[in-house]
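Saturday, quiet lab. Running sequence design on the structure tokens for the scaffold JK sent over.
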């Protein structure tokens, strides 16, 4: 049983922790506004992921992704929203000591993961390949969901703190602006790559 749990935790770590739109957006928010100001965005992303986990565990996620047109609508919605997130990061004009412009918040993170087909695909793959030796599938699914969410908390918090470390290194408002534009540009480049290669986000 311990091997199955470790395998699940590692799979989740690599699937959710790879540099995709949500982790990159977390790092960007941490770099742009700092860890404390980025916490509502982190909580939004995690809450959105919790909804995705429940949907995937109950079969709703697979049902959603079984309709190609609906999947395309989700992909387009996620792309548009992620471009908006990149824009908000790049145009945040708050300085090092004041917040004249609100950073991305809970709602932004929640919508980002709720529209993210990569989150659904990752969760469905994890549930489909989980072999936890328990009495019932319901128990195994519940344990898998808990591990998935706990690993996601760790991984997403690390991405936010990675950005926060960069935020602390910045000494001037001009450097902060350059850092924001850099992360926004990385996010846009990732989105362009996804769009041109027609892969799921």
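Result came back. Writing it out in full:
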């Amino acid at each position: 049983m311990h091997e199955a749990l470790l395998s699940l935790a590692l799979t989740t770590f690599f699937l959710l922790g790879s540099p995709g739109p949500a982790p990159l957006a977390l790092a960007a928010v941490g770099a742009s506004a700092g860890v404390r100001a980025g916490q509502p965005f982190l909580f939004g992303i995690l809450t959105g992921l919790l909804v995705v986990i429940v949907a995937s565990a109950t079969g709703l996620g697979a049902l959603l992704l079984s309709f190609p047109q609906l999947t395309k609508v989700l992909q387009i919605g996620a792309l548009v929203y992620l471009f908006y997130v990149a824009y908000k990061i790049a145009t945040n004009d708050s300085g090092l000591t004041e917040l004249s412009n609100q950073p991305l918040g809970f709602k932004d993170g929640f919508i980002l993961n709720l529209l993210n087909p990569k989150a659904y695909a990752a969760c469905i793959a994890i549930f489909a390949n989980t072999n936890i030796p328990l009495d019932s599938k319901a128990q195994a699914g519940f344990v898998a969901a808990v591990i998935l969410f706990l690993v996601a908390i760790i991984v997403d918090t690390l991405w936010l703190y990675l950005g926060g470390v960069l935020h602390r290194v910045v000494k001037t408002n001009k450097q902060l602006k350059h850092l924001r534009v850099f992360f926004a540009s990385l996010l846009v480049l990732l989105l362009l790559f996804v769009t041109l290669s027609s892969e799921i986000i």
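Notes for JK: The mean pLDDT is 81. The radius of gyration is 17 Å. Ask whether to fix the surface positions before the next round.
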